[in-house]
Design a protein that fits this description.
Blueprint: H1 2-20, E1 27-34, E2 44-67, E3 70-95, E4 100-111, E5 119-130, E6 135-137, E7 145-148, E8 155-160, E9 166-173, E10 178-182, E11 188-190, E12 197-205, E13 208-216
Parallel strand pairs: 3-4, 6-13
Antiparallel strand pairs: 1-2, 2-3, 4-5, 7-8, 8-11, 9-10, 9-12, 12-13
């Protein structure tokens, strides 16, 4: 698999010439893992945001392979002949993964009505870690850490009932994007600068991970 990946990356170097010469270009806009900090019990998804210079654009098929800690995804798109910026959001589900540090290679291909041969358009790589399933679920362990009020307005308070060591406190949106990191020594989190909506509060402690859905209003 490593030889195949290296060959495709070398081929992709030729695409840089096309991209920088001002010609029409199809490519990956962003790539992310959901959830952002997965554990072994999570069903992991990979979301790819891509853009094409023609419409319509849609994914025809995926190829997914996993070898040890190397994940290889190929996404094959069809794009139409109409000149317009076309955005596509595609999701692949690797599912549950074992604990470890992973490298994910994502290859984006496309073809058209006049050219049915798939062309390698873009490559992206992300690195992520899957930790053990030692997670504190707030819905059945609220006596360990209490987060209130919820819904919240300007501040969120954390009640650490068992004096756990707080290692990190982070707020993510529902797409897994990091919104804000908080100081671990304070008892109240300032959320006055965050837009209304649904979020996920992630608290890493010495005894595991605490996850709580938060509504800011």
């Amino acid at each position: 698999m490593k030889i195949i990946i290296i060959s495709k990356i070398l081929l992709f170097l030729f695409l840089i010439v096309i991209k920088t010469s001002g010609q029409s270009y199809s490519g990956i806009d962003s790539l992310k893992i959901i959830p952002a900090n997965p554990v072994t019990t999570d069903e992991i998804s990979v979301i790819c945001y891509s853009v094409f210079p023609h419409g319509s654009c849609f994914s025809e098929e995926f190829n997914l392979s996993i070898e040890d800690t190397i994940i290889h995804i190929e996404n094959y798109h069809f794009i139409g002949e109409y000149t317009a910026i076309c955005h596509s959001v595609d999701t692949v589900h690797p599912g549950n993964l074992s604990e470890g540090n992973y490298t994910l290679y994502y290859f984006l291909y496309y073809n058209t009505e006049t050219d049915t041969t798939y062309i390698l358009s873009d490559i992206d790589t992300i690195y992520f870690t899957v930790s053990s399933g030692n997670i504190i679920k707030s819905e059945n362990k609220t006596d360990i850490i209490t987060v209130y009020p919820n819904p919240a307005n300007n501040k969120i308070k954390i009640q650490n009932n068992y004096n756990l060591v707080m290692q990190s406190i982070k707020l993510f949106d529902i797409n897994g994007r990091l919104i804000k990191s908080f100081c671990t020594t304070g008892a109240a989190l300032d959320i006055s600068d965050i837009a209304k909506g649904q979020y996920v509060l992630n608290i890493q402690t010495d005894k595991g991970e605490f996850v709580e859905k938060i509504v800011i209003q």
